[in-house]
Amino acid sequence: MLHYHLWTIGCQMNQAESRRIAGVFASAGYAHEPQLDSADLVVLNTCVVRQSAEDRILGTLGLLAGMKKERPRMKIAVTGCFTARDGNELRSRFPHVDLFFGSGEYGVLEDWLLQQRTPPIGTHLPDTSTCAGAAESTAGVSAYVPIIHGCNNFCTYCIVPYTRGREISRTPAEVEGEIRCLVAKGTREVVLLGQNVDSYGHDLPDRPDLADLLERLEPIEGLQRIRFLTNHPKDMTDKLISTMARLGKVCEHLDLALQSGDNDILRAMARGYAVDDFVRLVARIRDAMPRISIATDIIVGFPGETDEQFESTFSLLDQIRFDVVHVAAYSPRPETIAARKYSDSVPQQAKKDRLHRIEELQARIASEINATYVQGQYEVLVEGKKKGRWFGRTRTHKLVFFESNSDCLGHLVTVEITKTGPWALQGQVVYNSISEKGGFPYHG
Ligand code: SF4
To answer: Residue 238 has what pLDDT?
Structure first.
């Protein structure tokens, strides 16, 4: 049997696509190999959103070039955002790569695998339109399910519209079909993915939106939780907020990218909203769902960002008090509007200082928010075990660790929180919903 290794970096969309790639390999009779240097075939699923990610790809490609000299029969394939560049240039720069295929081009991979070897008799490559990836063994308790590919927004710093193209929504039937397959394999939570999930459906007949899709998915038996990301503040509707608040399986958690707390910077980023719009949106969300947790993204050191403009972002974060802040230093990406229009004027040290100040602020805020969970009892969906302790997430996406001798994987348990920090909570199981139904002997 041949073995493949799948190397993935980047966003949740890449992780979802890697699950589907793993499905293609499993259906073609390949076994997974955890070690890159022992595999017959290595696939790199790439991300170029930041220069640091691109540097990692170049490093790994260099490593693979050396390995291929020693093992010439080893095959290398590259997919993801890195492949959005000119194909001829890629092939001449990286002659040791056997195949470049674009994000989501599973058919190209399938055809190529068929050329590499004769599949075992009876092997059928999967129908990637519905159950791809769900058909293999890596379907986890929680699974990412893309609902819309690409982006139409062209925020000036962002390379995604160039690497992933314009928005294309999957039909509600296709999304529902994939989720039913995943649930049949043991998945209990789905995270619907899109660069901007609020754009979902505008390109489909009857124009269903994300709220309509949630209504359709809510009744799926065996599915316990639904999440989605990422929302765009300029597009998130009151209809979506009220639907979230009403549907029992839709969790109280949002990823809502702010990016900056200064109106001039937001304008230069072409984000399409002002600070006040964002503040009002958060107020409407919290009115509808008072215990909701909200994560955000911030970029520091965007071209021309002054100390005062950074301070505006800093105080806005202190005012809004997000549960999680993903902060990144601006890194110019070729082709983007910002890279062409502005010089990368903020010194690296200033970017680092701003980043660390936000990290420190957020560690304090997250600690304070998480401390309010102590002595409360929360439903946790158990996703796995690490260093002898089970872990899972609350509906509000808080990571919780607890001890138990039972096999809790995939179960909903109620945990009383005893200790908290900025990044995780700890607690003790007080109730297991499955044991009540006789399906799960709980021993504590
Ligand atoms: S919404 Fe903006 S930041 Fe997000 S993927 Fe689209 S262009 Fe990039």
So the answer is: 98
Q: Which helix (H) or strand (E) holds 155?
A: none
Highest CATH level, class, for 142-371: alpha beta
Residue intervals of the chain classified under CATH 3.80.30.20 are: 142-371
Distance 215 CA to ligand 1 centre (A): 26
Cα-to-centroid distance, 153 and ligand 1 (Å)? 6
- Cβ burial of 89 (10 Å; 0-12, 13-18, 19+) is exposed
Class of domain 377-436: mainly beta
> Which ligand 1 atom lies nearest to the CA of residue 151?
6
Ligand 1 atom closest to the CA of 259, numbered from 1: 3
For residue 348, the tally of other CB atoms under 10 A from its CB is 10
Identify the residue whose C-alpha is closest to ligand 1 atom 4: 195
Whole-number average pLDDT of the chain: 91
Which range (95-104, 119-128, 243-252) has the least confidence? 119-128
Helix (H, G, I), strand (E, B) or coil at 239: helix
Tokens at 298, concatenated: 């911030």
Residue 363 in tokens: 């560690």
Q: CA torsion angle for 328, 333, 339, 345 (degrees, to 10)?
A: 40
> 3-116, superfamily in CATH?
Methylthiotransferase, N-terminal domain (3.40.50.12160)
- Going by CA atoms, what residue is nearest to atom 8 of ligand 1? 158
Residue intervals of the chain classified under CATH 3.40.50.12160 are 3-116
Ligand 1 pocket at CB < 6 A: 151, 153-155, 158, 160-161, 195-196, 232
pLDDT band at 119 (very low <50, low <70, confident <90, very high): very low
Q: For residue 66, which amino acid is it?
A: G
Ligand 1 atom having least distance to the Cα of 158 = 8
The pTM is what? 0.86
Q: Whose CA is nearest to atom 1 of ligand 1?
A: 153
Q: How many CB atoms lie within 10 A of CB 83?
A: 22
CA of 362 from ligand 1 middle (Å) equals 23
Stretch(es) of the chain classified as CATH 2.40.50.140? 377-436
Residue 161 CA to ligand 1 centre (angstroms): 7
Question: Quick one: which H or E segment has residue 31?
Answer: strand 31-32
Please name every residue paired with 5 in a beta bridge, in sequence order, or none if there are none: 42
H helix intervals, 6-50? 12-27
Among protein residues, the one whose CA lies closest to atom 5 of ligand 1: 195
Give every strand in the sheet of 293-300, ordered side by side. 253-255, 293-300, 324-329
Q: Compute, in angstroms, the gap from residue 125 CA to the centroid of ligand 1.
A: 33
CA of 392 from ligand 1 middle (Å) equals 29
> Which atom of ligand 1 approaches the CA of 154 most closely?
7
